[in-house]
Each structure stands twice: as structure tokens, then as C-alpha cells.
VOC domain-containing protein (Virgisporangium ochraceum), 114 residues
Amino acid sequence: MKISSISGVVYPVRELDKAIEFYQTLGFRLGKRDDHQVTVYVNWFWLTLTTDHDHVPAEGGPSLYLKVDDIDDYYGAVLAHGLTPSTEPRKDRSGRREFLLLDPDGNRLVFFTK
């Protein structure tokens, strides 16, 4: 089991334009945007700000995205270690494959591969 990199975080926001202004003021570079979300960058690290409640847990809070080389192998290794992911590997709206695993405190870890 090996994680390639910590790639980014998804934060739920109430007002997208206000959030964009805040993060740009801090020096984040503006990336791809649609009606419900925007991705901002510092170097290679990305932060997606979203008002799309389908991508935000009911209790709110961030999701940490962790890149792996092979999503199916990593999923199998997680299962072999006795852990229980919340989802099976599936395609997200951007086309990458991912699965969700909650840590013992309910924090969201999203493992993905492109």
C-alpha cells in the first residue's frame, strides 16, 4: 500500500465568489471554474471550493484527496487490512476513479487515480 501524493482538499463554501476573492488575496492561483465550484492552486497543490452539496458530506468539513497508482489494487489492500470503505471505486464527474474511506473520527479520505 503506497500513496503517491497528497493532491488536494475539497472545502464546502456558502458563497463561491466571496471564497474565490479570499483565496486569491492569499495568493492562490485561479483554475477551472463552473457554476458550483472552482479549483485554486499553490504550486501543484489544489483546493476545490464547492457549493455542490453532492460533493460535500452532510456534516460538512473537508475531504482530503490522496493519489494512488492503481485504485483497484489500493482498494483491495484497504479491504485486506480489515478496513471498510464507504464506497467502492467509481468515476467522479471529472473522470477520475476514486473511493471514500472515513478515518476513526469520521474524517473523509478520498483515494483516487486518474
Notes: Helices lie at 16-25, 71-80. The longest helix spans residues 16-25. Strands lie at 5-12, 29-33, 37-42, 45-50, 63-67, 90-91, 97-102, 108-113.
